[in-house]
Amino acid sequence: MKLALVGVGAVGSRMVDRILEVEADTGRAFTRGNALVCDIARTPADGFDAVPEDQRVLLGDTHEDVTAEGVEGDLELAADVAGTDLPEFRRALDSLAIHESDGVLVVADLGSATGSGAGAVLVEELQGLYDEPLYVLGALPADDDGGVAALNAARALRSVVPTADSTLAFDRETWPGDPESDDDPEIRALATRVATLFAAGELDSDAVAENAMDSSDLIRTLEPGGIASVGYASTDVEPDERGLFARLVAWFSRGGDDGDEATDAAKVKSLVQRAANTRLTVPCEVSSAERALVVLSGPPSELSRRGFESARQWLEAEADTVEILAGDDPRPRSSTLEAVVIFSNVTDVPRIDALQQRALDTQAAREGGRASDSDAVESRDHDSATDAAPSEAGDEGDGGDGGDAADADAADADAADADAADADAADAGTADDVPLIQDAEAVADDGSE
């Protein structure tokens, strides 16, 4: 499937850079460098290995509220800057051959202000500009990233999932690492999964697939929308250095060698099972998926047809759906046998449930802080009015002085309470009130409509 990549924010841009790097390292060709990255900052970032300088876009560099650090966690500012600089973004899109692509993949860290705020704006813009399918690869924050990151991600999901044709989730709690690092092994692992999945069906080798697949298979799999999760497994094998004719002769002559075929079939089935049962990009109950697709990639001699069919039948039972598509991606010079599985429109995703709940708790804490702040201000106003009124007891002597001191102490206490409430509100985040996802399956439901 030919893809155009669009990275949003610092982390999203680095993720695109790694995808391009893995594509080149593995000899695949599904983007052919057709990528664009954009960030909000005063000066352009460095550290890119695969994205050329002319394919990097800087937004907000003249905006008065954007600092050297970017939007400094202000989601609303990020959305405002993206909206204001849409003409600049559209001009940059002219460098992408989107009309020659089968789809667009927007990559963003949904827990960051830029990835969430600007990402939602740019996803909506791209969906309106092009007819090609629009997919989102969104990183979800880890628990240690805090409540504001969870709130950003929940708001982004509420906007992005219904807009995009499908949203591939990447959970940083499941895949811990340093997203700010230029060499995060978890990001490279994600890039490997993306490259193995989307490169299948592209004519970048001289081998002919037995179970050929093309972009329509991926489009059909992701068509239900909602949240998607990707699984992957690999094992080392001997590369197949023979020519095409020799490989075909060897393949047809294998018919009577049931022992070798049974061994290869078991290897393939085991690999697909590992891909589905080990670390998915976001943990989910695979039986809640509406559709699934499995791709087997590696030397042609290792791609057992019997094992492939057995693995497909197992996946149908595991995912509880007959809508299982499959294809192979022969790579004669590869020394790795790989299986990648994508589960589309999964509705039972505990991590997203937990993320939504934390977002709601954070929003409630912020609103509670605002209410406490308002009560404290009213209390101070009341005390000030009381102090300003003449006191007969105060006029008569020392008793009045004692009352004034007590009022002053009470006012000080109220001021301290107000300061504490201000701090709580600041900790809870600064984003404006936006409806959040209220129930566990709302994301999937919105995406499926």
UniProtKB/TrEMBL annotation:
Ranges annotated as biased composition (Acidic residues): 393-425
Sequence ranges of Basic and acidic residues compositional bias: 367-385
One Pfam family named in its UniProt record: CetZ_C
Keyword Cell cycle: yes
Residues holding GTP: 113-115, 145
Subcellular location: Cytoplasm
Its biological purpose: Involved in cell shape control.
Name assigned to this protein: Tubulin-like protein CetZ
Protein species of origin: Halarchaeum rubridurum
Gene transcribed to yield this protein: cetZ
